[in-house]
Design a protein that fits this description.
single chain, alpha/beta, 8 helices, 13 strands
């Protein structure tokens, strides 16, 4: 089945207001920025986003966030995104913070058909006991807090029950993909992208390089096409547009002194 869609705009044309989205990427690595921009240009609003973080440097999900298009975020990291923090603390945005490994497994479990699982992460904290602020009231108080979760003991160790995540759509970015939706991710972009793709009922992948079926060694496939419904091939310019969140430059090595 050829899953290639001509444009990003066409690929997201049926995403409605209020949809839930699993979005790949970590910081600025592996972020499906072209698909996110297409959603922005369509005017989609009120979405619930599941992603490690919510964009940075006015790119990625920060585009939707700054426009007030995101109603809820399920993630692990606010970081240096000042607008994310402002909307959260002012009560404009509902935020469910989850331990990073738990978030990854909740997405993977959703794609694997596992409804819930037990993990030791968060036992003895508000993650398990409840009370984490999901929404502030804008006056410093908490309008909505997380509920307590079930805790059980296995072999003398306590574990907290976490439910799998499934979303209406998933947006991911891959280094390479074929027309059947088989995807390959490059290095650190292979973080939340495969997991987000598994969690979406309709998964849309933007790929930097589109190849024909058979152009990817089966042993090299990171995510099989069964999890992907639509593929968008990026232009050379779009594929090369990769921002750097924090640029670090090393001091030059001192030159050796030559006598004589």
């Amino acid at each position: 089945m050829d899953k290639v869609v001509a444009t990003a705009e066409e690929a997201v044309a049926d995403v409605p207001d209020g949809a839930s989205l699993a979005v790949g990427g970590f910081g600025l690595s592996g972020v499906p920025g072209v698909l996110i921009q297409a959603l922005y240009e369509r005017g989609v609003t009120g979405v619930s986003v599941v992603s490690n973080n919510c964009g940075a440097m006015e790119s990625g999900l920060a585009v939707l966030l700054a426009a007030g298009r995101i109603a809820r975020v399920t993630g692990s990291y606010i970081g240096a995104n000042k607008e994310f923090a402002r909307q959260y603390l002012s009560g404009e945005l509902e935020v469910e913070m989850i331990p990073q490994g738990t978030l990854a497994e909740r997405l993977r479990a959703g794609g694997a058909g596992i409804p819930a699982f037990y993990t030791p992460a968060g036992v003895g904290t508000q993650v398990a006991e409840g009370g984490l602020p999901w929404r502030y009231d804008g006056r410093g108080g908490v309008a909505l807090a997380s509920p307590p979760k079930e805790v059980r003991e296995f072999d003398g160790t306590e574990y907290v029950l976490e439910h799998a995540i499934r979303t209406d759509y998933a947006l991911v970015r891959a280094a390479k993909g074929d027309r059947h939706g088989n995807l390959v991710f490059h290095r650190s972009a292979r973080n939340f992208n495969p997991l987000a793709a598994m969690a979406g009922r309709i998964t849309i992948a933007e790929v930097e390089e589109l190849v024909e079926p058979g152009g990817i060694d089966p042993d090299a496939v990171h995510l099989p096409g069964v999890f992907v419904q639509r593929v968008v091939a990026l232009t050379a310019g779009q594929a090369a547009d990769k921002k750097i969140e924090k640029r670090t430059v090393s001091a030059p090595a001192p030159k050796e002194r030559v006598n004589g």
